[in-house]
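Go through this chain for my students:
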Amino acid sequence: MFYDGFENHSFSNNAWILTDTTYKLGDTWWGSWSLELDSTDSAIRAQNTSGYENIKLSFWKRITGYDLWPVDTFRVEYTTNNGASWTTLESWTSNSGWSYHEYLLPAAAANNPQFGIRFRAQTNSINDDAFIDEVKIEGTPIPCTLYDLHLKV
């Protein structure tokens, strides 16, 4: 359904709704570019999952410069109602090297035109960085039910 490795490093492709987020050259899991989030940055991807079930989100993440006090936090969240509310899948408060994350989302994410994901930073400095790369949203096509219709003449 959706993939972004950020290699086009272009804000004009309308794949994301970005708040103060920047593309980062050279600090990546794969390729040349990743997405960097610090301070109160966020990156939202609205994804219509109509016709799909078993929705899965995967990505690579790295965190640098996070402080213990005040606590810096990076979250990955999802919505099933066009962003009226968000549910946290996981949050991190400490530095880490590149690591892979994969989530099988609840049934409410399936067959849903109002589904979306959000990556969100809450830090006290522009030097407290979270990087994401190789973001994928996948699903299984919902099988069609075929009916055998007999016409009586």
Remarks:
- The first strand starts at residue 2 and ends at 4.
- The chain has no helices and eleven strands.
- Residues 36 and 48 are 25 Å apart (CA to CA).
